[in-house]
Here is the input.
Amino acid sequence: MDDLQYFKDAAASNEWSLIWPEISVGLLALSLLVVEMLVPKMKNRLVPMIAMIGLSVITVTLVLSWVGMGVSYGESFAGLLFQSGFGESMRLFFLLGGLFICFLGYVTLQGRAIPRVEFFHIVLVVTAALMLLAQSNHFVMIFITLETVTIGFYILVSYFRNQPISLEAGLKYLILGGLSTGLLLFGIALLYGAAGNPQLAGATAEGLNLQALRAFLLNHGDHTLAVAGMLLVLFGIAFKVAVFPFQIWVPDVYQGAPTAVTAFLGVCSKAAGFALMIILVTRTFNVETMTSITVPLLSLMAIFSLLYGNLTALTQQNTKRLMGLSGISHAGFLLAGVVAAVHVDWAVWAVVFYLFSYMFSSFAVFGVMAFVEGKNPGEGEELIDYTGLYQRSPFLGTVLGIGLGSLAGIPPLVGFIGKALVFIALFQAGLYVLLLVGALSVAISIFYYFGWMRTAFFGDGPDTEKDYPAIEVPLPKRVPLAIIAGITVFLGFIQVPLAAVLGL
Amino acid sequence: MSAETLVVILLFALPFLSAAVIGIWFRLQGNIAAAISVASCGVVALLGLWLVFFGERSVAPAPVEWLTFGTYTVNMGYYFNDLAALLLFIVVVVGLLVHIFSLEYMRKDEGKARYFAGLSLFMFSMIGIVFADNLIMIFIFWELVGLSSFLLINHYFHKPSAVAASKKAFIVNRVGDFGFLIGIIWAYWHFGTVELSVLADMVGQDSDILVTGIGLLLFCSALGKSGQIPLHVWLPDAMEGPTPVSALIHAATMVAAGIYLLCRIYFLIPPEALVVVLWVGVITALFGSLCAITQKDIKKILAYSTISQLGYMVAAFGLGALAVKNGVPVMQAGVAAAMFHLFTHAFFKALLFLGSGSIIHACHHEQNIYRMGGLRTKMPVTFVTFTIAYLALIGLPFITAGFFSKEAILYLAFANNKLAFLVLLFSALLTAFYMTRLWLTVFFGAPKSEAAEESKENGLLITVPLGILAFFSIIAGWEFLHPQAFSGILDGIPHPSGWTYLLMVALGSGAMAIGVAAAYVYFGVGSRQDRLEREHPGVYAFLSAKFFFDQVYNWYVKTIQERLALLLHFIDQIFISGLIIRGSAGVLGLCSTGLRNLQTGNLQHYLYWIFFGVVVFWILGRTVFS
Here is the structure.
């Protein structure tokens, strides 16, 4: 009878209306397949258009629903999900991310003999999973959504299956990703085992539920199995966000993946990891016995990531590897923000703001990369291929300048505000070493970001003899890039709209 | 929003939009640019006159929050009183006339659009100074007028002398503005605010809080902008710009802004600082008129004359005395006399410059007065109007505007400081002397060059503004005609009475008469050569060296500043750039190459790496940190 009652209660808490955006995105993904079947020979832009328009409509509806009904708060689906302002803002983040990735995919896939509907289908499925991930409140939910995302990425990374480099990247990501999933799952098992040990006071059968787990950890945060589990879970996630020492896969995978997928991996996959970091580090493992471990350990990871990412990027000539390596240093910043959020509540929003700023700035750069690269593997990916980009296409040059400037954290662009917020949080949390290393790494990063800009604007690359053709960007394709660049500049001046969304 | 606020916003917006529109879209279409600029200036003039005569005087009715530093917020607001109304009147009237004059004067200029964009930018900046309600806002517009002045002096940028002059103007003004900026910061630090109205209230409640240093530093602004010794050196060189610009910016409005600023912040200038102000003004007045005697370039003579007259205004301000009545700070007589002279001077000096512009235009850009001559018959309108302005400047009694305003200053000096009075009186004599030299040489005798021979009167676009300015050059001094709008300022003009009045008139007109007579006798009518240069080369050389200010500055820059700069450059190259920058870049580059070699591309290596990472961080987590 108890079991029946349990399932009845669980079913009663299934509020499907709460996850209408995820359901809509999923249905949109399915509808793409139907469209492709019904109009199989069409070479037009129908599929990406439907994907983009659909995502836009869902995004706008989501924002309007906040205005109209406010943000819901609390558990649902028997504790699998937890609705909160944080989850809502990450939903918006992933919707916007998916939207731009569809645009990038449209640009990247154009003129290639590669099936395209699968790309958009997988991107939408992954987007829906990412949105659920950010609201999850249960290790089962976390694991399932994370695996949906990761398996989607295995396919996407090797999407150019006629190119060995893409296949190699996919294989590397699959094997290393499998390792990290193993670590994560092992950690979850250990935590569940520790929490379910009947010999301990306060043991719970609900050890996979994060609230229940936290209640257990309050008493047994120093339990050997629990600490071991926590460490393994964090290591597993550290792989997803690519912080030191789990960053080693980044350059190879980023380089081999199609540019749109590189952007997806670099922005949305990373953000998913940090959403989990925030949920786990600041809301679950935030018991005193554990923060004494997590704060120094994650700080150390952040410091190494900042230094490693920026130092290796200094002499990097391939732009995709460069973005990957600089992404490691941005992950260092974000991790530093997460560490600060253990003690300073609002730092969570600093991290989310940083994620948004990183998304807009990176997309500006990735967007330009999608137009500069050629159709063959490795073509148009080196720094010298950007020689005189501003002269060849003033539009792309300007967008690239804005994106890189924002990534480097130059005021008045949004990247500066993001970094400033993290710095303030670090200062308030008293993490002065992190603050110092962060400031130092900003100085180093300016070197290579500006080197790239110098090549693009003043064209004194090593190979100026070569003739670089002008790049024409048709007007419709300019619009998304211009919007992204515009947001990057606008949010640098006025943060009110984003801050209102984030509750800063 | 009140009508006044709306008008003020329009006054800011129109010239700014005009400059922006020309700068963005019409850089190459000179005629469209001129039309836009003149039209905007015309509307600005109408709105400005409405505000002057019918607008309500108000203190910062709707300030806009602009920047917040810690606990202090910088507002953008306006503060409109009779003082501001007076300057606004000058700016819009002279500004509009100069715009119209420029239509003809710059007709064939290649950089016409650039020129009119510059004029519009200047109008915007100058209106900003007129209305600004706090020191920081004043400073911003202060720099903007400096910028537009720089751009316009630099108009003929293919001429090296124009480039050098604009650079000089900019740098010399920097020196004064630096003092101004320190003064503003000190004022904020000391008073806790930079809002003019709040500051006035604070001084009204306790005038002991004033600090001499702040007053002197704020006076630095006028030192640079109004060409007072020792920062006057840029103003004669600034004559490289087009002549209408000289009339508007370097005679009537911008250079007068220094005096306006002093009058605007009179309550911050304590008596000790006023003494310094007084003597700087007196010495400048004398110095300017001495230098003007030996100049041959018609515009340079007028430039030194401007310096001298600005000296009068500064001296008049320095002769005032700060008092507090019923909790309101009052500056007696000084502000009124200074602003009165500023008011009349703006018209007759702008007229002199536009007149000289008319002559230069007719004589194909000949500026040497000894290559003109006989223009009285060739250019009758210019002659008549120029003569009116000339009489106003030397102060023809009872008729011209200049007489009344100069008398007011002389009387103020007579009543307060006899020594200053004597110097100023002597300067008045010199003024009559050098202006008569110019007048007799340019307009009488026979033409002394082909250009002067062929010259003829200009069209209406030039002569009408001359006529209007001539009208104001006379009636601006008649106090019974002064409108109610300026009563807050001009009612305070000091008047002598009884025998003092007779004495003042006698002395003033006597000095003028002696100066005119001396010049007539010494230089003669329509002379071909400078008699002073021929007969007394020593005196001439001494005066034309302009007291060696330029030489001293050049010596300082060459021997001290440049050597220091070279030394610093050396240190920078060896230590900063060599060791620290390149050294650290090298170290980082090595690290980078080393770390890059970790990326072998081999999957097994990566797996070992991650495994190794797990082990190390596991041990750290389990032992060191727990």
